[in-house]
Amino acid sequence: MLRAPILAWYELHRRELPMRASDVSPWGTLVFEVMSQQTPIPRVQPIWERWMRLWPSPADFAAASPAEALVEWAHLGYPSRALRLRECAQVIVREWGCEVPDSYEALLALPGIGPYTASALASFQFHERIPVLDTNIRRVFARVRDGVEFARRSAPSRAEFAAAVCWLPENGVDCARWNVAIMEFGAVVCTQRSPKCQDCPLRKDCAWANAGFPPAEVRPRGQSWKGTDRQARGRVMAALRRSPEGISIDEAVAAARLEGADPEQAPRVIEALISDGLVAEDSTTRHITLPRE
After folding, report:
1. What is the pLDDT of residues 128-161, one digit of tens each?
2. Crossing angle, helix 229-242 and helix 66-73, to 10 degrees?
3. Is the dihedral of CA 92, 94, 99, 105 positive or negative?
4. Residue 289: partners with Cβ closer than 8 Å, 6 or more residues away
5. I need a labelling partner for 288 at 20 to 30 A (CA). Which of 63, 208, 236, 245 fits?
């Protein structure tokens, strides 16, 4: 069992992250886990800290307007997550007495909460004996245990989940520490692009290293950004955050227009933002604003 070397490494090298502090509330952990999906922690930290000052409880955030949520989401990307998080806060207030529910099943039933976030909350906050399978942890398991390079799939398989359960300590508190330790190890040492194999405490026992570091059979394709609808959407949302009173459709089109893009991209992007509920349109004045209700 390779738990001991990873836990020992964690004791010496863990980052002091305010989001992982022992006094962070279940709500604070929930917000952090939603924010950090597909987003690096250094980008998340200052925004999370501001959110915790503005909205330290589900009730505080449930009372915020959609526009306030989208403005404070800033540059995290995928802004629909902010609106889903607001829905989640409202359900917690309405159905759970303002307290984040304390079981995996109940967490999974909340708006915008998927299996990873539910398992992270259940483990880190409520000490349920459950694996937390983010990309970092899955990469460590694939390399160290299975001897293969990690090829990202959309969700962990049943086999991955069952194998991860076998590595869990028996005690729920110890499980939480193990989950966060191996997650940190994957984020800092067993990284995707430049793993620090020379400094790895598992080097001698790593099946991937002992197999000669074989590459993945199918390499995951990186997400493009430049020139995409997602980039154009981000430019419109940034313009609206700078002008909370709203901007004209023409200004929105100018913000969304990317060099060399399809001429239909900007109108398409704006229509999609309206359809997704991320912006509101006043057809009389031909202006768009962030949603107020």
Report:
1. 999 999 999 999 999 999 999 988 777 888 999 9
2. 110
3. negative
4. 67, 240, 244, 245, 246, 279, 280, 282
5. 63
Which residues lie closer than 8 Å to 231 by C-beta, 6 or more apart? Answer: 225, 258
68-99 pLDDT, tens digit each: 999 999 989 899 999 999 999 999 999 999 99
Its pTM stands at: 0.89
Active site residues: 33
